[in-house]
Amino acid sequence: MSEPAEPTVAAAARVYDYMLGGTHNYAVDRAAAAQTARSFPLAAVGARYNREFLGRVVRFLTGAGIRQFLDLGSGIPTAGNVHEIAQAEDPAARVVYVDYEREAVELGQRILGGNPNATAIRADLREPEDVLSRAGLLDFGEPVAVLMISVLHFITDDEQARDVVRKYVGRLVPGSYLALSHLTWAGGRAGTLQRETSHVYNNTVAESLAIRDVEQVASFFTGLELVEPGLVPLPDWRPDDPDYVPDEDDVPRQVGVGGVGRTRLDVSSDL
Length: 271
Ligand SMILES: C[S@@+](CC[C@H](N)C(=O)[O-])C[C@H]1O[C@@H](n2cnc3c(N)ncnc32)[C@H](O)[C@@H]1O
Hints:
Bound molecules: S-adenosylmethionine
Number of strands: 8
Protein name: SAM-dependent methyltransferase
InterPro entries: SAM-dependent_MTases_sf (IPR029063), SAM_dep_MeTrfase_SAV2177_type (IPR006764)
CATH superfamily: Vaccinia Virus protein VP39
Organism: Amycolatopsis bartoniae
Strand content: 5-15%
CATH topology: Rossmann fold
């Protein structure tokens, strides 16, 4: 089936790519990004915080001995891809990228051409059985890190989001990990701006956003042990800079949290 050359509806993957300075986006995506930027000028900074969080998470996980990654909602391949970081540590590290956006996956496949240990598949992460059956590159008898970075807020139904997470985590052996980041509500003026922005976003981009409370995000880690420092604003999670001090006035820092949970070594998952 041929796809239209120029999409008429913005897509989350391409809006995010544009915010990160990428080139894989269309006029409709740039217009949505510009509208978002008008109501929430610091959205692009938040996108960068998220991508940097992802990089630190993958370095932490490879340091912890993880050699298999299932990156759900991986987005358009942009600088600092998971396989680049993991395979720099160990070329045998295996990565499966999953996204439902055609262009994100096609670009991923092109970038990964000739890489025997990484692949990109087009699938909907809300269908874990399908995704897991196609992630044959990964051995689920060994520890795997499931990454859900800035994607769960696109599953607007709370129960469905929890169920989806449970199904992936339920497949993991002890010593595996779940890493996620998620948009959360800020207080005060930042919260007002955020409400306006999510309204704009929900009216211009194909996907709607479910911004959640930190407690709701924490519930995705039920049955897992959160590694230090827990579920925190993205720049605060294991910062590279030893002199890093959280800036309480930094608005983009207030609109999302991230964390990493480990399946327990002593008992199998009780989910
Ligand atoms: C904001 S981007 C995040 C990209 C990457 N994880 C990161 O943090 O840099 C969200 C991505 O999730 C994808 N996505 C949203 N819902 C999805 C679903 N149900 N199944 C697969 N991909 C999905 C979008 O297409 C988009 O590429």
